[in-house]
Each structure stands twice: as C-alpha cells, then as structure tokens.
Amino acid sequence: MRKPIIAGNWKMNNTIKQGESLVSDILGKDLSRDVEVVICVPFTFLDRASKLVTGTQIKLGAQNMHWEEKGAYTGEISPVMLNEIKVEYVIIGHSERRQYFNETDETVNKKIKSALTYNLTPIVCVGESLEERENGKYKELIESQVTKAFEGITKEDAVKTVIAYEPIWAIGTGKTASSEQAEEICALIRSILEKLYDADTSQKIRVLYGGSVKPDNIKELMNMENIDGALVGGASLKANDFVQLVNYKLEE
After folding, report:
1. 213: CATH
2. pTM for the predicted model, two decimal places
3. Going along the chain, which residue ranges are E strands?
4. Interval 188-241: pLDDT, tens
5. Is 251 a member of any domain?
6. Residues spanned by the domain of 25
7. Where in the sequence numbering do the catalytic residues fall?
8. Does the annotation list 172 as a binding residue?
9. Could you give the number of structural domains in the chain?
10. 11 annotated as a binding-site residue
11. Distances in whole angstroms, Cα of residue 101 to Cα of each of 115, 123, 211
12. Is 212 annotated as a binding residue?
C-alpha cells in the first residue's frame, strides 16, 4: 500500500515569526496517522522548522536545492546543508522554478540524482501549461518530462521518489483539474514509469496531484486510484485548511 502524502508548499511566504505561529497551530491539532505530513518551507525557516517538528509526525521539506555539495554557486543551497538540519524532502522542478528560474529537464535530473545520493526524498514536479493542454500535446509533454527526469536512475532509487502532477494552468488560479483529469495524468505517469522500469516499480512510486487543492475537493481527488496525495500551495498557509486536508479520511 502506498501511504498518502499531504505536502504543503509554502512558496515565498511567511517570515520566521509567521512560520512559527503556523507550525504551532498545525501541531495543536489532531493529525491523521494514516497520512504522511510534509511542510516545504522557505530556506530562512528550515532550521527553526526542523527544531519545531522534531519528535512530531510532521516531516520537513525544502523547496529547491543545487545538485553540487559545495562550490562557487552564489545564492544556492546544497544537499549537505539540507542534511545537516534534518530535511527529509525536497521539491524539484516545480513549474515556477522552470518558468522563472530557467530550470530544465537536465537540471531536474541532476538534482534528483543528487537528492537520492544524500538520502533526500525528491518530490519531482511535472505538468503542462494551458496552451499545451489545449493544443493536445500534454501527454507527450508529460512523458518527456518524466522520462528525462528519471534518465540514469535505477528502479531501486526510483521507488524512493515522489512525483507531483501539477497542471500549470491550475496553480494558484483557482482552477482545478477535475478529479478525472487529474486521475488521467497520474495514471499516465504510472504507465510511463512501468515502461521505464516495470509494473511493480510503478506501483510503488507515489504520485501526487497539485493545483488549487482545497478541503472541498480533496476527498474526490483522493478517491482516484492513482492519486496518492497532494502538493498543496495556498491551503497550506492556513492551519485549519491544511489540517482538514491531512484529515480528509476522518472528515464526514
């Protein structure tokens, strides 16, 4: 059984003080033990967040990293630095990184390999723009992104990764892919993994959906066969909303 993941991506939000308050509010609630809970916070808050969540069920994630362990890469953060503050997850290849910071399939692949080398769990993001969906090329794009992301990665390492399908047209827009649209692509991702590796490997890798996930649509999404959780943006910045997502199985 693939354990569901609800991962919050805070993006460039919350000062340290605001982050402390949000984490405190989340920890003050009862959280489902059937769900893996992850918060991916800004670099400035990682060290403090690590101390706050130690000994709790919340796991800590970074939003990006460089593939080298050290060097002349001004402004970058290495996997070794993340290890030192007990980060367990790292988002790689988010559409905003691709769109605004020139992230490519090649750099995504390098970062995945580096994350795995340093025992970090990569949350690998793939997804299409509205134009790519409307011109009917989105399936080919997803296949290309997944194939290039996992180039040179063994099946033993592949099962240590998480993939997040995030249609770019549904991120922060209030638009959400229907549960059927999300399931279609998550199933496609699993079939691509089966081609790259084998059926057993593809069934072990968790595939998340991201894009305007809210308490009122989480249950429908999670009822889909190939959706194993959510990578959540805006709703992860509100303690009550995030807790409702984590507790989707408990909600009536």
Report:
1. 3.20.20.70
2. 0.96
3. 5-9, 36-40, 58-62, 89-92, 121-126, 162-165, 206-209, 229-232
4. 999 999 999 999 999 999 999 998 899 999 999 999 999 999 999 999 999 999
5. no
6. 5-246
7. 94, 166
8. yes
9. 1
10. yes
11. 19, 18, 20
12. yes
